[in-house]
Amino acid sequence: MEAYKFETTVLENGIIQIPEISKLAHHPIEIFALNRKPFVKHATKLFKVAHKKNFLLYISATTVTDIYYITRKECGKDMALTFLKDLSQFINIISVNKQIILQSINSDMPDFEDAIQVFSAKQETISTIITRNEADFIHSGLNTTDRKLDE
After folding, report:
1. What domain range is 104 assigned to?
2. I need a labelling partner for 74 at 20 to 30 A (CA). Which of 37, 84, 121, 141 fits?
């Protein structure tokens, strides 16, 4: 895979654009965060570090539907679908199956959606979840830190 630099541009409509990522896909790609701080800062940093250190990035299938919902609401269906198509070129998507749902239901984690992220990660033997909200994952058995981006 060729090297990419992830430089961002804030467009007038507030969409954060990372034009260099579009080299991986067929269409220009915009970050859905719509300039919501600190989300944009963290997402941009994540992409930069993942590229620099050759990290594989994963999201669960439920995260895909969350991204679609937010992007469609703010940018329309066509842009949301284009974004997901482009995103899938460089992000691995973990299937969420019955076992993950049942583990999440039966877990002691207070947040069901967080439990799905944890059990999805464990299914793929992923050791770290990068999150701004480390407290929600303290008892997950996974490394959970935003600071991993700085290491």
Report:
1. 95-151
2. 121
